[in-house]
Every structure is written in structure tokens, then in C-alpha cells.
């Protein structure tokens, strides 16, 4: 029987809310079946769960890539249901897709600046460049290098930097540790906490469930398109009923 925890952070208004969302692809059956996920400001919320549970689909609905069939998307108190990705980007929501998306034959700087194509104010762009170069030291030190010459983990940081050029309030990260070795994975997780500490909320999807929950503030375990259990990340990590079933064996 599914565990149902009615848990809700009441201290701060949530920045991003997906409320009772139903969504699916084309005419196929629903993938998300009445799912509610809330992301408070400047926090990391991690979605974990088995393959096919609908984690990436949650991010696609949140960023406007996939329109929900029912439910609401609320960003900073405004109902943004039905708005497309460009509109939501302008409203403060960035989506870093699964896989690698840097252009290897362009420099790190050129890749990062692509993220600012909607920002008209040159002074603002310069300010953001300074910000991301400081936040991600490898982006600063390899600014003029070809992005293709960077390691996978370093390229992921270039993608993070690019996503921050629009000064988003919330960033959606889909499997950022995919394909990375343990050392690069540790660096990527550290950078996620730095993004959060710099004031950006993060909705994170990760297969690497235990490691992700260790750096997250809150977690949601998804199964079959529903939130199976949600709560403080530390509580999920120590919940014996989740253990091997959803989080994988302890290392
Ligand atoms: N573009 C698509 N067209 C049709 N069906 C899709 C599409 N993308 C995903 N699906 C289906 O939606 C369901 C949920 O997929 P989703 O990628 O959201 O799951 P996930 O939890 O992120 O899985 P994983 O951990 O394997 O990445 C799966 O059954 C998948 O086959």
C-alpha cells in the first residue's frame, strides 16, 4: 500500500508549484497522474524513483515543453499553466536537459553567452558573466578554451553557467551526474549546492538517489506518475521503507 505523507513546508511561500498535474505524450496513457511537487525559494528539491516513474516528464511540464492535461503550474505566485518554454525562461525558469548540450567547437565563453541571448542589457550580461565565472571556477579559468576540450563534468558546469545567465529564480536539472565518474559527480553536486547557496532554487532529477538526497533539502519519491512519499531529504535517506527499494543499496 502506498505510503502517503501529507507534508508541507509552511515557513516560506513556494517558488514553483506543480499542483495535481496530469500529463502524457500524444494520445498515450497518462504518465503523471495527479502529481503535486513544491519547490521553496533557494532550496534543492530532488525527485528520485525508478526508471519510467515520470521524473523527466515533471521537468518538461514545469518548463513548458509538455503541456499538462490537467492541474496547474504556479511560478512565484502566478499561474503559468500553458505557457511555453521561452515565456517561462523569461519568467525566471531555466531547464538544463538530460545529456550533454555544449557546442564542442565553440569556446566556453561563447557557450555560456548563448544563455544570455534574451538579455538585452549589456551591463547585465557582463554582471552575470562575472557571477558565473566566480561561481564555477573552471568556467572562469577555461573561458577561452574550446568547450570540447573540457571533461564531461566540466562541460556540465558550462551548462549550469549558461542556465544562470538569465538570472533564473529556479533551475531544473535533469540527471546532471549522468555518465560522470565519482569525482566529477561529487564536483557537480557541490556546484548544485553553490547554486542554491547563491539564491537559486533547484529542482533536481537524479538516478544517483542517495548522493542527490544528501545534498538536497527536500525529496520526492515518484512511482507510476505519482508522489509516493515526500519530505525532508534527510528523513527520506533514513526511512527504512524506502531503502533498497527506491534508493539503491548503501555503498
Ligand atoms: N517523448 C516521449 N514520447 C512518448 N513517451 C515518452 C516520451 N518521453 C517519455 N515517455 C514515457 O513516459 C514515461 C516516463 O518517462 P520519464 O522519462 O519521465 O521517466 P523517468 O522517471 O525520468 O525515467 P528515467 O529514470 O529512466 O529517466 C515512460 O514510460 C516513457 O516511455
From TrEMBL:
Classification via CDD domains: ABC_TM1139_LivF_branched (cd03224)
Organism: Saccharothrix ecbatanensis
UniProtKB keywords: Amino-acid transport, ATP-binding, Nucleotide-binding, Transport
Residues in ABC transporter domain copies: 16-249
UniProt similarity note: Belongs to the ABC transporter superfamily.
GO biological process, one term: L-amino acid transport
Protein name as annotated: Branched-chain amino acid transport system ATP-binding protein
MF-aspect GO terms: ATP binding; ATP hydrolysis activity; branched-chain amino acid transmembrane transporter activity
Pfam families: ABC_tran (PF00005)
Listed PANTHER family: ABC TRANSPORTER ATP-BINDING PROTEIN (PTHR43820:SF6), HIGH-AFFINITY BRANCHED-CHAIN AMINO ACID TRANSPORT ATP-BINDING PROTEIN LIVF (PTHR43820)
Amino acid at each position: 500500500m502506498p505510503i502517503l505523507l501529507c507534508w508541507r513546508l509552511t515557513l516560506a511561500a513556494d517558488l514553483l508549484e506543480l499542483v495535481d498535474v496530469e500529463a502524457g505524450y500524444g494520445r498515450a496513457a497518462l504518465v503523471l497522474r495527479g502529481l503535486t511537487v513544491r519547490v521553496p525559494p533557494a532550496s534543492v528539491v530532488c525527485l528520485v524513483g525508478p526508471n519510467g516513474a515520470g521524473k523527466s516528464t515533471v521537468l518538461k511540464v514545469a518548463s513548458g515543453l509538455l503541456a499538462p492535461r490537467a492541474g496547474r503550474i504556479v511560478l512565484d505566485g502566478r499561474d503559468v499553466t500553458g505557457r511555453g518554454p521561452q515565456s517561462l525562461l523569461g519568467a525566471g525558469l531555466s531547464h538544463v536537459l538530460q545529456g550533454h548540450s555544449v557546442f564542442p567547437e565553440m569556446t566556453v565563453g561563447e557557450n555560456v553567452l548563448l544563455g544570455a541571448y534574451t538579455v538585452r542589457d549589456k551591463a547585465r550580461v557582463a554582471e552575470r558573466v562575472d557571477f558565473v565565472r566566480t561561481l564555477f571556477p573552471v568556467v572562469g579559468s577555461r573561458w577561452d578554451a574550446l568547450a570540447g576540450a573540457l571533461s564531461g563534468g566540466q562541460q556540465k558546469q558550462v551548462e549550469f553557467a549558461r542556465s544562470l545567465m538569465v538570472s533564473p529564480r529556479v533551475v531544473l536539472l535533469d540527471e546532471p551526474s549522468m555518465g560522470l565518474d565519482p569525482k566529477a559527480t561529487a564536483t557537480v553536486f557541490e556546484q548544485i549546492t553553490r547554486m542554491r547557496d547563491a539564491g537559486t532554487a533547484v529542482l533536481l532529477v537524479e538516478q544517483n538517489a542517495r548522493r542527490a538526497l544528501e545534498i538536497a533539502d527536500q525529496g520526492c519519491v515518484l512511482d507510476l506518475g505519482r508522489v509516493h512519499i515526500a519530505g525532508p531529504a534527510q528523513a527520506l535517506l533514513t526511512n527504512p521503507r524506502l531503502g533498497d527499494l527506491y534508493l539503491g543499496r548503501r555503498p
